[in-house]
Predict the structure.
Amino acid sequence: MNRARPAAELSRRIGGTRRWILLSALLGTVTVGSGIALVAMSTHLVTMSEIYGTAATLSLVILAVRASAVTRVVARYVDRYLGHLGTFRVLTRLRVWTYSSLVDAEPLGDADHRRGDVVAALVDDVETMQDHLLRVAVPVVVTALTSLIGAVVIALIDPAASLVFLGVFTVVAVVSWSTLRRAAATAGRAMTAVRAERLARSTEELAVLDEMIAWGRADRLTAVLSELDDRERPATRRLAAVRARADAVVTLTTGGTALVLAAMVLRPPFTVDVATWVLAVPVLALAATEAIGPLLAGAERSASTDAAAGRVLDLVERHRPPPRPPSRPLATRSPRLVLDHVSFAFDGGPIILEHDTTVVEWGHTVVVVAPSGTGKSTLGELLLGLRSPTGGAVRIDDIDVRAIDHEDRPTLMAAVLQDDHLFDTTLRDNLLVADADADDECLRRFVTVAGLDALVDERSLDLPVGPDGASLSGGERQRVLLARAMVADAPILVLDEAGEHLDPERRRQVLDAVLDSRRGRTTIVLAHDTSVIARADRVLELRDGRLHEHPRHEHRADAGPTTQS
Amino acid sequence: MTNRRAPVAPVTPVDPVTAGREQLALAAAVGAQLVAVAWTAVLALTLSRAFDGRSITVPLALLALGLALRAGLRTISNQLAASVSETVRRRTRAELADDLVRERSSSGADATLLGPGIDALDDHVCRYRPARVTAMVVPPVVVVVMAVLDPISMAILLFTGPMLIALLALVGARTRVLAERRLHELGRLRHLHFDMVSGLPVLRIFGRAGDGAARLGEASERFGRTTMDVLRTAFQTSLVIEWAATAATALVAVQVGLRLTAGHLGFGAALVVLLLTPEFFVPLRNLAAEYHAGQTGEATLTALAARAAGRTEALTAPDRSPASPTSSAPEWSSPPSLSFDAVTVDAPGSGRRLLTDTTLRLHAGETIGLIGPSGIGKSTVARLVLALHRPTAGTVRIDGEPLDALDPEQWRRSVTFVTQRPCLVSGTIADNIALSAPTATRAEIEHAARCAGVDEFAAALPLGLDTAVGERGARLSGGQRQRIAIARAMLRNAPVVVLDEFTAHLDPDTEATVVAQMATFLAGRTTLLIAHRPASASLATRLVTVDDGRFIEVGP
């Protein structure tokens, strides 16, 4: 992949940016072009007046002056308006594209700051890409076109001056653009990285602020910020220096070009036919070099946009999902679940799971008991197809779980994960995530099964749950997660420590109610103790990366589903 | 959003050195623009000399010099402004961090303010403020020059100039409101992204990832529209200013041309007037161009000003800070008693009433178990003890003294605790344990790790306790995280202990070991234990629950 110009690479990948750049550049050229025309015609007008002294011959010129004035203003407005409008469309597409590339990735890391980093890329780095289109790409085209227009107009007056103009201007523009760009590159990258990290880490620190205050460690936030300020300082200083240099180059280039041309063309005596135009040449040069300002500012910005684009591309690259078997539809709605020689290890880590084969028959309730830290949650994620095993496969009937047709997926499996998430919206909307078509009556039924009826009667389904359910108590949150998993009404349900944060009696009540309502379908309960095994058709124990039949339940292993209705 | 006082002064009272630098930066910016005006006038005169057939070597040299002067001034101005901006941003950030700690904020929007919000001050300081001052000083100077050369052209400028300034002021108020809304929406956009990224596995399981992407798309579009609202106002302002500038230039050109023809005006003066007219508008155009940047910064300043007001209140309001820090450094040689004295407590956030005028006493060195169904306010009681939440009525007393009378920071140093959903921060396992006692020795940390059963799983990790938390190699399970939190609590040698479901996520074997260790640790400490499981509840000498808003004992 070409990563020399990440911003350009990223725009190419999401596509459709080129026409906006071209449109905006053309309008920008018209703006600067009519500016050139305006000063040229004005100077010409005044000179004509001095030489000929009659108003009659001037009317055409006056008309031209006015026309170029109107064109300039209108073109500028339309340019800025459409340019930004197009850019925001592109940014939205870019966000959706980036998010969608993460959808099939393996689970993101647990640490908050990983998520913070992803969010920084999705929101802020994408926002920075706005500059790539409007302030980096467009000025390059505008500068090229307007300097050509300027050169053509000057050539009509004095061909030699035109060549000098083009030569001087092109050399200065190209050389200073690439030097400034290079000078800013490292600092721009550093600054973008620090700013993203600041967002991620302050999000993280603010999320734990309460606990830090309780520990008397609120100074952490200040310390993090001050450390990042220290790290950002050299980069921002360097960028400020580059910006100041760019600004000086702009002043010297526009003024200098005008002076060089003045020295060249203002050699009296003038013949009368050129005199009315000659005086316009230096002024014209001033107008024609106007675009170099945005161009060099863009050179400095390109460092940040490239860095931001690089981060987005890295994010997508890092989370590229492993290859999956081709998608297939499911033959039955009552499948068996097969763990077929599944093994798993984190990248470079020790092997967590190395199993031969276990078959979960349709309609069984299977409890997997495992002490904490033995890979129970990983097993759950493998069963759900959220993770890819290092070896072997989890199969639903004969199909690899990761190859289940997208049509079938949502209606096939539901789960309560150990690190499950509630969205910052109402209770109803959270439940509807599991089944968008469920009506209130259906939601209430499962709310009752999960033992949340008292809360809902008191506060209704419109109760906002807060960020990740923060407005609920630990037990209430857990019940909402259970209710949501049941709303999906899926043939296969995986519960990972779903009774946590409930006292034993209530846990038994809730899980009993859940398992009752699951009669005749497959439920896999992952638990760290044996409190729920009374309800199980089969109990397995996860030990040393393998599933063993639990000694107290071995005799029932092949008894078949006892709860089939 | 509510606080919309007229132009917001810089929130941060800058020190004299920084203020002086800013003055210099502004002076240099104005100077550079004045040089530009003079330069243009000289250029016009040079053209006229050339037209008259006279030598222009000297004026050209003068112009080259002027160019260098202007570039120099601009460089000085830019560099100084950048250093001012750096100081301002750094200080503002530190102050905001203090405010956030005081408010105990945990909102994602505040992270936005802390990051991009304050970053926006850079453009405000480096571009908007110089543009504003230049726009106030330079156009009047041009008017004066024009008055000398050609009063009629001056009249045209005088007619358009003030109108544009009035327009800018008028539009300014509206733009600021929009910019504030935009900042607010940026915070919401980030929060939504955080929500959708955190919930990605959920969306995948239920096959709703497409909906997640769609919601982000909608939010992004909405944010784009809000930004467009801000920009449209800026563009329209620019449009009017450009229109006035261009129209005035055209008008002056035509009018000067006609009067030249009639012989009412000298050629030199005519050229100067012609070229100076755009210079009158240049500072106004620049200001309009920087307006967007400026208003973004102003939105940040407004948000900060609201907090600064809160800061003053906090300093003056008696009930927020310790009323009379009578016991400045309470050191307990023996564990204190703890009582909830006729307390009424509302839930944070929802405001649901949890406790009504009820009393509970923990004797010195006693462990009380608080049990009961979810949602009765057990965790809120724990927050009362940590001085993170205040009762609506009644008093929490430590050895008979009101908790309000103690400095909360000093009081919290006497408490160690495990929360319901303990937080891990980035850093190693050892860092996370030592959070409760930064001065702890390695041996102490290792001891705490052993007591909480952290060493059991840490031993299997390549770097042991020095393994970074949350990185790929060390994905920690819920139970492992819980054990780190327990080790953290056990590391701090404090007389008061608050445990909120401290054995959550632990398997029975681990739980048994940890509970035994905890029993030893709790000896000689006053403990509030929130328990769900029999094993941990067994640590309590008395069990209490909440019924209808009142504490009641339910047995030993």
